[in-house]
Write a structure and sequence with these properties.
There is one protein chain. The protein has 79 residues and is an all-alpha fold. It has a domain at 25-78. The chain has helices at residues 15-40, 51-78.
């Protein structure tokens, strides 16, 4: 029985793939920040959850998005 080997090709990504990946990443950041700030400003309440819990969750979302964006940029610079 012959074993099939999967070759991992390290082809460089095309410019179009990089642009689409950046657009998707940036869109995710913006949507997450919009949701987080909406929760903080009580514009986006969550039914059956107290407003103070929603505000805390909004702050957590915003902080984690900012940390994640900074870490992603640092990772991209280092590689």
């Amino acid at each position: 029985m012959a074993k099939s080997k999967i070759k991992s090709e390290n082809k460089p990504k095309s410019a179009l793939v990089k642009v689409w990946a950046f657009i998707a990443w940036l869109t995710g950041i913006l949507v997450s920040l919009a949701v987080g700030f909406g929760m903080i400003n009580e514009v986006l309440p969550i039914p059956n959850i107290p407003l103070y819990v929603t505000k805390i969750a909004g702050y957590i979302v915003v902080v984690l998005v900012i940390i994640g964006a900074i870490l992603a940029v640092i990772d991209k610079i280092r590689s």
